[in-house]
UniProtKB/TrEMBL annotation:
Organism: Aquibacillus rhizosphaerae
CDD domains: ALDH_y4uC (cd07149)
Key words of the record: Oxidoreductase
PANTHER family reported in the protein's UniProt record: ALDEHYDE DEHYDROGENASE
Oxidoreductase found in the keyword field: yes
Family statement drawn from the similarity comment of this UniProt entry: Belongs to the aldehyde dehydrogenase family.
SUPFAM superfamilies assigned to the protein according to its UniProt record, in alphabetical order: ALDH-like (SSF53720)
Name this protein carries in UniProt: Aldehyde dehydrogenase family protein
Length: 481
C-alpha cells in the first residue's frame, strides 16, 4: 500500500512554519518516503533561540501550578492519541509496534513525573550561626531555572528521549530548543503538538528540524543557550563539548554494556532477560546487552539455551504485532554492523548464530571467542549482536566487564548477596542491575555513566537539578532596641 507523503512543519516559538528547503523522512523497512520536513537554516535556529530567551525572560513569574497543568495536559494529549504516537515511532524508526507502544507509555510517565517533580524544586534552610560571629544571620537557598536549554536528541527513542529533556526543562521553568535526529523528527514534532495543545506559552518550546552540520553549532555555541543536553555518540559529544564553552553540558554517550551470569543464578530468567536485553529495539539501545560473562560451569548450557531462545525471535514487518525485531535505522548502519562482525570473524571469533544481512535488516547474532582487541568488543555495536564469554568467577567477570572505555550500566544474575555487593562496588558503571540485564531503566531514576558513557545524569529529578541553579540568601538581623 502506498502511503500518502505528509508535508510537516516545524515549531518555532509557537508558530508552525515551513523552510525554504525540506528533506525526506524514510521508513527504514522499505526505504519508502513517509514525510517531508523543513530543513531549517542557521537563521531559523538563531531566531528560535532568540525567541526562547525572550519567552524565558517573560516567564520568571510563571507559577509552578501552571507549569504542572501544562505538563499534565500534554501527557493527557499523548495518552488520548497513543496509537498515533506509536505508529509514528514505528514508521520512522526501528521499533516494532509493540516496542513503540511501550515507548509511548514511558513518555506519558516521563511527562507526568516532570509535573510531579515541579512541585518539589525545593531549597534548604542554612544554619549560619554554626559559624562564630554569625549568630545574627539566618537564611536559605533556593533553585531557579537556568534559562534557555539546547536539546539534541537521537533516533533510537525518538519520543521519550525528547520528553526526558523537554519535560524537566518546562518543570523547572526553562525554555528549550530541540534539535531532533534528522532520521526521526516526526515523533518530536508530534510531541511539540501535545504541548501546544496543552497551552504552553509561545517560545518556551521550539522543535527545529534539519541537518546537524548546518544548525547544530548555532545551537551549541550561542551564548543565550545556558545548557546543552545531548544524547548520542562519543565523537559528536566531544565536538559539542568543545563548541559549548563555559556552559552546563549533560551528555549520555552510549555504552558497551556487560552482564554477568553466575552459577547460582536463576538460569532461565537470566537467559530470557539477556536475549531481550540484547535484541530489543534491534540492539539500538544504549543500555542493551552487548557482552555476557558466564561462569564456566554453566557456560555451555547457557550458550545453547541462549541460541534456542534467539532462534524463536521473529524478524520482519515492524507493524506486525507478532514481530520481535525490525530493521536497523538504515541500510548504512546494517552494513556497518555486518562489517564489524566480519572483522571479528576474521580475527578468530566464532559465529554461533545469525550474521546475515538483507537491506537494513540484520539477523540477531551471537558471537563467541571474540578477541578483546576486536572493534566489536571495545566499542558500542548499536546493533543486534551479542558476545558471550566463559569466566572463572565473579572477580574475573568484573575485571573483564570493566575492560572497555564505557560505563553506563551493567547487570549481574546471582543469588549470592555478597557477590552482588562485590559487583556493585567494583563495576565501573553508573548503574548496576541485580538479577536484571543491563537493559533495565525506569524514567524516574538517575541515569548516566562514567568514562566515555557521558557527563552528568538524566532521569527527571536529576535533569531538573541540572537545569536549575542554586542561590543562597542571607539576612543579617539588626538588634531591636
Amino acid at each position: 500500500m502506498q502511503l500518502q507523503v505528509k508535508n510537516e512543519k516545524m515549531l518555532l516559538a509557537g508558530q508552525w512554519i515551513d523552510a525554504e528547503r525540506s528533506f525526506n523522512v524514510y521508513n527504514p523497512q522499505n526505504n519508502q518516503v513517509i514525510a517531508r520536513v523543513p530543513r531549517a537554516s542557521k537563521s531559523d535556529m538563531l531566531l528560535a533561540i532568540e525567541k526562547a530567551n525572550q519567552a524565558y525572560q517573560l516567564s520568571h513569574s510563571w507559577p509552578t501550578h501552571e507549569r504542572m497543568s501544562v505538563l499534565n495536559k500534554a501527557a493527557d494529549y499523548v495518552e488520548q492519541n497513543s496509537e498515533l504516537y506509536a505508529e509514528t515511532i514505528a514508521l520512522e524508526g526501528s521499533k516494532t509496534i509493540n516496542e513503540a507502544r511501550g515507548e509511548v507509555t514511558r513518555t506519558i510517565q516521563t511527562i507526568r513525573i516532570s509535573a510531579e517533580e515541579a512541585r518539589r524544586i525545593n531549597g534548604q534552610t542554612i544554619n549560619f550561626d554554626q559559624n562564630e560571629g554569625s549568630e545574627n544571620r539566618v537564611g536559605y537557598s533556593y533553585r531557579f531555572p537556568i534559562g534557555v536549554v539546547g536539546a539534541i536528541t537521537p533516533f533510537n527513542d525518538p519520543l521519550n528521549l525528547v520528553a526526558h529533556k523537554v519535560g524537566p526543562a518546562i518543570a523547572a521553568g526553562n525554555a528549550v530548543v530541540v534539535k531532533p535526529a534528522s532520521v526521526t523528527p516526526l515523533s518530536a514534532l508530534l510531541l511539540a503538538k501535545a504541548f501546544v495543545e496543552a497551552g504552553l506559552p509561545a517560545g518556551i518550546l521550539s522543535v527545529i528540524t534539519g541537518s546537524g552540520k548546518e544548525i547544530g553549532e548555532a545551537l551549541t555555541t550561542n551564548p543565550l543557550v545556558k545548557m546543552i543536553s545531548f544524547t548520542g555518540g562519543v565523537k559528536a559529544g566531544e565536538r559539542i563539548a568543545h563548541q559549548a564553552g563555559i556552559k552546563r553540558v549533560n551528555m549520555e554517550l552510549g555504552s558497551n554494556s556487560p552482564v554477568i551470569v553466575l552459577n547460582d543464578a536463576d538460569f532461565h530468567d537470566a537467559v530470557s532477560s539477556c536475549v531481550s536485553g540484547a535484541f530489543g529495539a534491534v540492539g539500538q539501545n544504549c543500555i542493551g546487552v552487548q557482552r555476557i560473562y558466564v561462569e564456566k560451569d554453566i557456560y555451555e548450557s547457557f550458550l545453547e539455551a541462549f541460541k534456542e531462545r534467539t532462534k524463536d525471535l521473529q524478524v520482519g514487518d515492524k507493524l506486525n504485532e507478532l514481530t520481535d525485531m525490525g530493521p536497523l535505522i538504515n541500510e548504512q548502519e546494517a552494513k556497518r554492523v555486518e562489517e564489524w562482525v566480519n572483522e571479528a570473524l576474521y580475527d578468530g571469533a566464532t559465529l554461533e548464530f545469525g550474521g546475515q544481512r538483507k537491506g537494513a535488516f540484520y539477523d540477531p547474532t551471537i558471537l563467541t571467542n571474540v578477541p578483546k582487541s576486536a572493534k566489536i568488543a571495545k566499542e558500542e555495536i548499536f546493533g543486534p549482536v551479542v558476545l558471550i564469554y566463559p569466566v572463572d568467577n565473579v572477580y574475573d567477570a568484573v575485571e573483564k566487564s570493566n575492560d572497555v572505555d564505557y560505563g553506563l550500566q551493567a547487570g549481574i544474575f546471582t543469588s549470592d548477596i555478597n557477590k552482588a555487593y562485590f559487583s556493585i562496588q567494583h563495576l565501573h558503571v553508573g548503574g548496576v542491575m541485580v538479577n536484571d540485564s543491563s537493559d533495565y531503566r525506569i524514567d524516574a531514576m538517575p541515569f548516566g555513566g562514567v568514562k566515555n558513557s557521558g557527563l552528568g545524569r538524566e532521569g527527571v529529578r536529576s535533569t531538573i537539578d541540572a537545569m536549575t541553579e542554586e542561590k543562597v540568601v542571607s539576612f543579617r538581623l539588626q538588634q531591636i532596641m
